[in-house]
Amino acid sequence: MSVAKINRVKEKVEEQLNKLKLSGEVKSEMRTLMRKAMLHPCYGNPEYNWSLNDFELGARLGRGKFGRVYIAREKYTGYVVALKTLVKRNYTKAQAYLAIIDMVP
């Protein structure tokens, strides 16, 4: 990663933080999170291919007709997310392609 990109990210983060009225401790934590997010390879790259290797899977939160939902932590930034897994056999058997397309933005 280039030094120029890192400096641009730092400038953008500081610009956004200056617009917010945050205390010192909260501002410091926000700065760290924003920098991690903006330096992630997927930032500004809609073609980024996510995989299960990008996440640490936790407990199962629920299940549905087509798959399961897990709590997960993104490895690079540490963000906690809900991760839905789909079992292809289940939705192809039900011919539910439109329901799957509606789930994915």
TrEMBL record:
ATP binds at residues 65, 84. It catalyses: L-threonyl-[protein] + ATP = O-phospho-L-threonyl-[protein] + ADP + H(+); L-seryl-[protein] + ATP = O-phospho-L-seryl-[protein] + ADP + H(+). The keyword Kinase applies. InterPro entries: Aur-like, Kinase-like_dom_sf, Prot_kinase_dom, Protein_kinase_ATP_BS. The keyword tRNA processing does not apply. Gene3D superfamilies: Phosphorylase Kinase, domain 1. Residues 55-105 form the Protein kinase domain. This is Protein kinase domain-containing protein. It comes from Acanthoscelides obtectus.
